[in-house]
Structure formats: structure tokens, C-alpha cells
Design brief:
The protein has about 190 residues and is mainly alpha-helical. It is about 55% helix and about 5% strand. The protein has nine helices and two strands; from the N terminus they run H-H-H-H-H-H-H-H-H-E-E.
Length: about 190
């Protein structure tokens, strides 16, 4: 598989820094609310512990600045089961667009799609699968009872991840596997 399909885009860090500066200027930045040390102490299977494990497994740090919506981003990956690769990022944006239209989701989703398109043009069969996956993510968002702007995960850290998902009528997405030729396929192995 081409490593660019799973590598984060180099433009993302500067865009996030710009978002933080704009958020600070607009007065919408909030203090960090994800403390990995605290979350790692929670029981296995809890939302908080699973959040920490997701970040640890992906070797990521939580977003600690900017608007609340940005800081919730990793939690949306956790709730939905979408990966942190470019395809998973696009699925998160499609899901959020379905759950609650927000112009930022549309802009982020289109930007992510542009990155993916550049990477998969030599795999024409993949384009159909990408479209299908994004449509499925959008439909999951429409079916869910999830409003990212109202979500307060701090009140749910101790609850099981499956309980939190159920409260939003959200089943985890099937894991996606990448093949050596760059194709993706769904499996029926769900995260709990």
C-alpha cells in the first residue's frame, strides 16, 4: 500500500495553528479538557479510558487549544470508529455533516477529499468505494442523535463506550482494511 494513504497530510498542522489563532482572536478558544493521565486511570472500556487508548495507539496528543469543537475531534473518531488516516478523517467530516450541518465540516470534508483524490487517482476502483464509504458515514450521522456542539464528554468519562454510543443511537463503524494495492474493504470487526 502507498504510505501516503495512511500518512497525515503535511498541511494539517499549519491549518490547525491558523484555526487556533483565529479562535483566540474571536474569543471562542476554551481551556483544554482532555487530561490523558486522568483518563488512563479510568476503568477499561470506559469512554475516558478508550479516548486515552485511541490517542496512545495512534501516537497522538489531544488537542489542547482552540475551540471546543476542535478538542472534541478525537472523541468523534472514538464514537464513530473511523480511523485517523485521511480516509477516516473524511468519514468523520461526512458523519458530522450528516449529524448537524456546519460550514466548517463542509470545508474540512472537501479539503480532506482533495487530499484523498490526489492519492487515489491511480486506483480508479477505489473512487467508488470512497464515495460509498463517505455516503455511509453521512447516513450514519443523519441516523444518530448526536450534536457535537452539545456533547459534554467530561460528564461521560466514567460510562462505558458502548453506553455512550447507545445514548447517541450510534453503532460503531466496521473496521476498514487496506490492501497492498491501495484498496479498502470493510470487515465486520467492530470496536467496542
Amino acid at each position: 500500500m502507498d504510505s501516503t494513504l495512511t500518512s497525515p497530510a503535511p498541511l494539517i498542522p499549519p491549518v490547525l495553528k491558523l484555526l487556533d489563532r483565529l479562535s483566540d482572536a474571536a474569543g471562542v478558544s476554551v481551556p483544554a479538557f482532555v487530561d490523558l493521565a486522568d483518563l488512563r486511570q479510568l476503568p477499561p472500556g470506559s469512554l475516558g479510558r478508550a479516548w486515552a487508548e485511541l490517542l496512545d495507539a495512534a501516537q497522538l496528543s489531544p488537542f489542547t487549544g482552540g475551540p471546543r469543537r476542535k478538542q472534541l475531534h478525537d472523541g468523534v473518531h472514538l464514537l464513530t470508529g473511523y480511523g485517523t488516516d485521511p480516509m477516516g478523517e473524511a468519514e468523520v467530516q461526512a458523519f458530522l455533516l450528516g449529524a448537524k450541518f456546519h460550514p466548517a465540516q463542509l470545508a474540512l470534508g472537501l479539503g480532506t477529499l482533495r487530499l484523498i483524490h490526489r492519492q487515489v487517482t491511480r486506483f480508479p476502483l477505489m473512487q467508488t468505494e470512497i464515495r460509498d464509504r463517505l455516503w455511509a458515514a453521512y447516513q450514519r450521522g443523519r441516523a444518530a442523535k448526536f450534536d457535537v456542539d452539545q456533547w459534554q464528554p467530561e460528564t461521560q468519562w466514567h460510562l462505558s463506550l458502548s453506553e455512550v454510543r447507545a445514548s447517541f443511537r450510534l453503532e460503531p463503524a466496521p473496521r476498514q482494511q487496506s490492501h497492498a494495492d491501495g484498496r479498502y474493504s470493510a470487515t465486520t470487526n467492530y470496536e467496542s
